[in-house]
Amino acid sequence: MPTPDTAPDLTVELCGLTLSNPVIAASGCFGFGEEILPFYHPSLLGGISTKGLTLRPRQGNGGIRLHETRAGLMNSIGLQNPGVAAFVQTILPRIRGLTPCLIANVGGHEIADFVEAVGMVAAADVDMIELNISCPNIKCGGQAFGNRAGDAASVVRAVRPVCGKPLMVKLSPNADDLVGVALACEEAGADALSLVNTFNALAIDVHARRAVFDNVTAGLSGPAILPIALRMTRDVARAVKIPVVGMGGIETGEDVAAFIMAGARAVQVGTAGLVRPDALPVIVEELARFMAAEGIANLAQIRGIV
Amino acid sequence: MTTDLHVVQGNETVAPGIYRLSVGPSSPSAAVPAAVQPGQFHMLKTVAPEPLLPRPISIHEVTGDVLSFLYEVKGAGTRNLAALKPGDPLRVTGPLGRGFDVDALSGRILLVAGGIGIAPFRYLARALAEAGRTQVTLAAGFRSRPYGIEDFQPCVRDVRIATEDGSEGVKGRVTSLYSPRDFDVVVACGPVPMMRAVQQGCAEAGTRGILSMEARMACGVGLCLGCTIRTTTGMRRVCTDGPVFPGEEVFFDAHA
After folding, report:
1. Residues A225-260: pLDDT tens digits?
2. Which of A109, A145, A175, B100 has the greatest number of C-beta atoms within 10 Å?
3. What is the dihedral of CA B156, B157, B159, B160, to 10 degrees?
C-alpha cells in the first residue's frame, strides 16, 4: 500500500512506449490533435490516435452524419480525411510534438490500399499504427475485414512486412466471432489490439418513414455501449497474449479503472471528449484520485483482476 | 475559448417556444471571458446527463461578462435549456467558430433573418453601428408573431417584417421584403430553404451573400467532422470553418 502522500503511478507500457497515463484519445474523436489546443495540451494524455487515414483523400459521407440516442451517439462520417500523403507531408510535422505516443489510424477498402498506406505512414515519424479493419472490404461484397477471422488475418499479414512500427489492430464489435478475430490478428503478427469500434446500429425517422442515415446503418458509441465493450475487452484480453487497449463509452476515471480490471493495458476515449472538450484530462485526474483513494499504487495491481 | 460552468442569470420566454437566456461567470475570479465575435456560438449543456451532447447556440448579446442567447425550443437539448432557472449551473464552451467579419461588411448592408435566425443579428447590428456602418437594414421573416426584433434601432435604420400568416408586417416570405440589387452585401441566417432563396437572389443580382449556416453538431470544436456541409472547397465543418460562409461557396443540393 502506498503512503497517502505517494502519488499513484499511472504510467503504462505499450509496445515499447511508455505512456504517462492509460488514456489515449480515440480515432475520429480528436481530429489530428490540434483542435483541442485552446482547451489543453494533448501531452496531458497517454497518447493520440489520429483521425482515420486512407491511401487517397476521402470526402466522407453526405447527408446526416450524426444522430443522438439515449446515452449514445450514432455517426456516419465516412472516413473524411486528407489521405496519407497529405498527412505525412503537411499535418504530421505540425502535430509531431503534441504527444510522445502518436498513433496513426489507417483504414482502407482493399488490401493493396492498406499495404501502400501503412507503408507510407509507418515510414514517417509516428510511434504506432492502428489498423482500422472495420471498413467494408470492397472485394468481399462490402463485408468489413474485421467481421471474419480470415479476412482480418489476411490484412494484418499483408501489412506486417511494410510496418516497421508497432502494429495495433482495432477490432469491430460486429465481428461474427470477436475472440476468433482477435486470435487471428495476433497470429498474423499484430503487436496489440484495440477494441471496440462502434456498434453497427439503426435509427429510423418515423415521421419521414425512412432511415436517418443515407447509409441506413451507422456506428453507435457513447455510454450506452460501455457494458458490452467492457465484456468484449475482457473476453479478448483473456484470450490473447498481446496488449489490449479497451474502449467504448468511457466517461470517468472509474470507467477507466473498470477497463483495466477487465484486462486492458490502456484505454481510448472518444465520445466523452465530444460532450465536453476537456473530458480526457479530467478523466486522467479522476483516475489518479480513484487510485489514491483506493490505495492502488500502479495499474498493474488491478489489471485483469476481474 | 474556454469550457466551464456558468451561472444562469435569466431565462425568459419572449414568444411561444422562444427564450432569452443570460449567463454569467460562476465566480468573480473566473477567467476573463474571451472577446466574442458576432456570429460565433457557444456549446451549452445543462448538468442533466441527457441528452448527451451540448447544443450550439449563437451569441445574441454580450454585456460585460454576461452572455445572452436567444433560442427556440426544438428538442430535448433546448427543452433542458428552457427549464433553467436563475442560479442554475450551465456548461458553456466558447466562443466558437468563425463569425461575421465586421471589417469586411460595408456600404449598404442587409441582414436577412428567418425565424430564430434573428438571434445573431442583434449583436452584429451593434458591432456594425460601433464600426460606423450607417446603411444597415434588417429584414426579418416569421411564421407568425415576430420576436427578437426590438432594440435594433438605432443600430439599423430600417426594420422590415414579414409574417407567413400576415399577423404583422407584410404577409409572405422574407425574400419579398427586399431586392438584392439595392444592397452591397446581404447577410442571412435562417432555415435552409430561406438561405437557398436568399443566395439565389444574391447570385442573380451580383450582390455578395454571407450565410450563417446551421448543422447538427457533436463537439462544436472541430474534432468529429459531424457537422460538415458541401462547399466549393470540399466538405467543411460548420463549427470551425464556419458557421459563417461566403454564400457562393455553399452547395444547397446536399441539404434538400
Report:
1. 999 999 999 999 999 999 999 999 999 999 999 999
2. A145
3. -130
Q: Which CATH number fits domain B102-255: 3.40.50.80, 3.40.50.1820, 2.60.40.1120, 2.40.50.90?
A: 3.40.50.80
Q: Please check whether residue B35 is in contact with residue B20, taking contact to mean a CB–CB distance below 8 angstroms.
A: no
Cell of A75: 455517426
Identify the three-state secondary structure at position B242. coil
The pLDDT, as a whole number, for residue A238 is: 98
The residues, ordered by sequence, that sit 6+ positions from B99 with a Cβ below 8 Å of its Cβ are: B36, B37, B38, B39, B40, B59, B120, B243, B244
Chain A residues with CB-CB distance to B224 below 8 A: 28-29, 66, 75, 77, 274
Nearest-5° Cα angle at B45, B40 to B51? 125
**A146-168 b/e (C-beta count within 10 Å ≥ 16 → b):** bbbbebbbbbbbbbbebbebbbb
What does the pLDDT look like over A200-230, one tens digit per residue?
Answer: 999 999 999 999 999 999 999 999 999 999 9
State pLDDT tens for residues B46-80.
Answer: 999 999 999 999 999 999 999 999 999 999 999 99
**CATH class of the domain at B2-96:** mainly beta
Collapsing DSSP to helix, strand or coil, A182 comes out as helix
Active-site residue set of A: 135
pTM over 0.90: yes
- Candidates A205, A225, A227; CA nearest to A214 is A205
Question: ∠ CA A148-A153-A158 to the nearest 5 degrees?
Answer: 135
Alpha-helical (H) ranges within chain A are 84-86, 92-95, 111-122, 149-159, 178-187, 226-239, 253-261, 272-275, 279-294
**Are residues A274 and B219, on separate chains, in Cβ contact within 8 Å?**
yes
CA–CA distance, B206 with B245 (Å, rounded to integer): 17
Q: Which of B42, B217, B219 to mutate to test the interface with A (most CBs of A within 10 A)?
A: B219
Residue type, B166: G
Closest residue in chain B to residue A59, using alpha carbons only: B235
CATH superfamily placement of domain A12-301: Aldolase class I (3.20.20.70)
